[in-house]
Amino acid sequence: MIMLKNEFNQRLFEFLAASPTPFHAVGEMRGRLQEAGFIELEEQNAWSVKPGGRYFLVRNDSAIVAWQMPADDGLPERGFRMVGAHTDSPCLRVKPNPVLLRQGCVNLGVEVYGGVLLNPWFDRDLSLAGRVSYLAQDGEVRSALINFVKPIAIIPSLAIHLDRTANSERSVNPQTDIPPLLAQVQVDGDEFDFRTMLKAELARDDIDDVDKILDYELSFYDVQGAGYVGLNEEFMASARLDNLLSCFIGLEALIESDSEQGALLICNDHEEVGSLSACGAQGPMLMNLLERLLPDNELRNRALANSMMVSADNAHAVHPNFADKHDANHGPKLNAGPVIKINNNQRYATNSETAAIFRNLADLEDVPVQSFVVRTDMGCGSTIGPITSGELGVKTIDVGAPQYAMHSIREICGSDDAVNLARILQRFFRMDKV
């Protein structure tokens, strides 16, 4: 199927708007997979998986694996064409006892999740979303997603009149400087019950069986939606492009691949904090699935040897104001094609074989490809690619769409790059052999 850029990007914008947290992103992906005919399987149940069937499973409400079985019983000979991404993004998460009453105002204490670029969080209209666990009126413990949608908080900057060195020396203390401002108390000494606020919001969402709020995982987010930027709409700006952009690209490619090959998409949680969790790439989620699909070690090892993983996570585009932060020969540009990420110290899993396969796929789609290598005098970040490759022993490449302002509250990508990467991944899912 031909992917049209504007239609593709509009679906991306809608996906980003519906996905303020990993829980919401997985919920949105679940709905789109079900609409496309994928069948949800639950890990605690017995499975009946058939050749040619399309399935998915969810773990912790924040990670998801979707796959298509080969049309025949040839999984050991064909393997899987795998794409990996992650659902989490750096953000501010509410602490268990968050209420801070100061100067007649209610602030909420937050914990920094991942490598947040903190300065852009000031003076933004913030809302709150995540998962809430509660005791229901029938005595059962349940969970529900919550999203206030409207702006309910802000982190005001300190006026420059009170800090004349703000533009040259100001730093951000994450403990004292960033608790978002939520409300004013009417009378000094008044209490503010955060859990009562959550219960009232759930009731507005017609979840009215709540007896007691037991716990929560909540994140602040910027309410400004995704959209085009630039004189000719050559850029896209949004929160959480790292890495919901790759989740969406992989999802679209899998749904539209119309393949008889074994095709698989995994979107893990917790990449931004190291990936070591039950639903992270360094956890057992993907191997658990493969062991159930192929319990025999011999057959499973053969399938993995015939498989390949594309780890999709955005890449650093060369910033026109800071070009010296890049190697002069490896500065990817927006709208100039997906980026192959290379690091000989194995911070990325790319090797010459997997890069060649990806380049050939791009040539077949008439899509340009770029390369990124970090400056030799700078440290290199990493992705789920080396972790997944090390866990499974599967050949892997790290790629991504180029972007500016990674880990900011508002990131920027090229408006051509997402659909072009999706075209390559769609062809990858249809590959006969790797």
Describe this protein's structure.
This protein is of the alpha/beta class. The chain is built from ten helices and 20 strands. The chain has helices at residues 5-17, 22-35, 75-78, 194-204, 241-256, 285-293, 297-305, 352-364, 384-392, 417-429, and strands spanning 39-40, 54-59, 63-68, 80-86, 91-102, 105-113, 126-136, 141-147, 181-184, 210-222, 227-229, 235-238, 262-268, 308-312, 315-316, 339-341, 370-372, 395-400, 402-404, 411-414. The longest helix is centred in the middle third of the chain and has 16 residues, at 241-256. The mean pLDDT is 95.
The value of Rg in angstroms is 23 Å
- Which structural class matches the secondary elements? alpha/beta
| Spatial ordering of strands, largest sheet | 1-2-3-13-4-14-18-16-17
Which H/E pattern describes the elements? HHEEEHEEEEEEHEEEHEHHEEEHEHEEEH
Number of helices: 10
* Biggest sheet architecture: 9 strands, mixed
Rounded mean pLDDT is 95
Helix content: 25-40%
In short:
This protein has helices at residues 5-17, 22-35, 75-78, 194-204, 241-256, 285-293, 297-305, 352-364, 384-392, 417-429; strands spanning 39-40, 54-59, 63-68, 80-86, 91-102, 105-113, 126-136, 141-147, 181-184, 210-222, 227-229, 235-238, 262-268, 308-312, 315-316, 339-341, 370-372, 395-400, 402-404, 411-414. It is an alpha/beta fold and 434 residues long.
